Every structure is written in structure tokens, then in C-alpha cells.
Description:
Elements (H helix, E strand, L loop, with lengths): L5 H11 L10 H7 L2 E3 L20 E3 L7 E2 L10 E3 L7 E2 L1 H4 L7 E3 L19 E3 L15 H6 L5 E3 L19 E3 L8 H10 L4 E3 L9 H10 L5 E2 L2 E2 L4 H10 L8
Amino acid sequence: MPQLTNDLLFQAASASSHSRPRTGEKPAKYLARLTHLHLNGKGLTGIAIAPGTLLALNTLYLYDNEITSLDGLGSLAMLRHLYMQNNLISNINVGELASMSRLKKLYLNNNCLPSLAPLAPLVGLVELHANAQRLPPGQAFDVAPEVLESMRSLRVLALANNGLQTTDGLAGCKSLETVDLAKNGLDSLAAVAPLLNASPLKELDLRGNQISDSRQHLDAIIVSCPTINNLNGRELTQSERPYLQQLMRLGKRRMEM
Length: 257
């Protein structure tokens, strides 16, 4: 893999960062005060940041590479946002994640992770994006319910296109507000009920699931989850829920979950 020397980091940072090196500033000093770093699309297959190199870094862009392991970032104690979508990540160094306790947003879309279990140390996450994990045929994606339940600050969760057939694994998520479950195998109200009953959802995307083929099922979701204001990318009108509730009272809609 390309060696991440200070010179390479300095070159990448000074070419893409809004914070330019000051006149005569040495690479080490410049890197130590850097808050954002773009290393996306560099052909990286791995990454290792030396301790003491990027002391102030809070946002790191590593998307569109060929990285196979989330490793080598343990020294980035100030990191808050990490973008690693469109890589080949199938392995995570759990020990290093323990030192990244400030991480709030993690983007892992379009990688090869079989499970969310290695993310257990990241209990402070507010957003987790893990759509479309590329797994071998027949291998199921593991949402690791006990790990998601421990992320008590998690507000945004994206698990689209992961072959999910139920939301049982999300039943312990009590704080979710925005959830993307598009292009999964959710085919009934019973399949989404655990999530609806657990979280104060505001936005839910079920497009590409069989359940979204039924207008009656979508109406039932709107009635049963009073906090939802956006379903399948559509903002609900103020009168929509009261209208559906009235139909239910009149027996013109069956809303059983």
C-alpha cells in the first residue's frame, strides 16, 4: 500500500484542505493543527497514522479507496467524523476503536462487513451508515442487536440493501429518529413492528421492500407511529394522519400490526 509518510500526508492535506500551510511552516506542525484531511481516491489498501501526527484531526475522508481493514487510526483521539464508504473493509481492529470515543458519525456504506459487532466500542455514535455490505452468497448480515442497543445516542441508522427480513435486531434501539432500510426483504407489518415500537422515528425509508407495495401497510405505519413525518422520502401532510385515524375508527382501514 502507499506509505503514509508525513510528506505524503502534508502533500494531500495542503492540496485539498481549506487550511493551507503558513509561510515557512514545517509539515509536522501543519499536520498537528489540521482538523480535516482528504485521503479519498488515493488507491490506499490500508492506512496507519503515526501517533502524534494528526493531533487535532476531527474529520477524515477515506472513501473510494481499496482499504480492507479499519485499522491504523487508533491515534486519532479527536476524530468525530469518519468517511470510509466504497472500500473493501471486511475486518475491524476492535482494540483501536476503544481510543476513538469521540467518534459521532461513521460511514461504511458499500464495504464487506459481515457484522456490526466489532463496532461495540463506539457507544457515542450519533450516525451509523452501513448500507450495501458485499458478502458472499448465502452469508447473512449481522446487525449485532446488543451492540446497537448500547449506542444510546444513535439517532441515524442506514442499513439499506443488506438482505434484512426483520427489524427484530433493532428492537433495543430507543433513540433512532432516521432509519434507512430500503431494498431489504421486509414484507409485512410484523417485520417492521419491532422498530416502530422501539424508537421515536421521524423518517423511515422502506422503498424497495415488499411492504411498500401495499398502501394499506404504509397507512398502518403512519397511524401506529405518531412521530413519523417522512415515509419513503415523502413528507406527510398535517391532515394525513388524522384522516387515516378516522378511517380506522370507522372500520374502513384495518391497521393491525
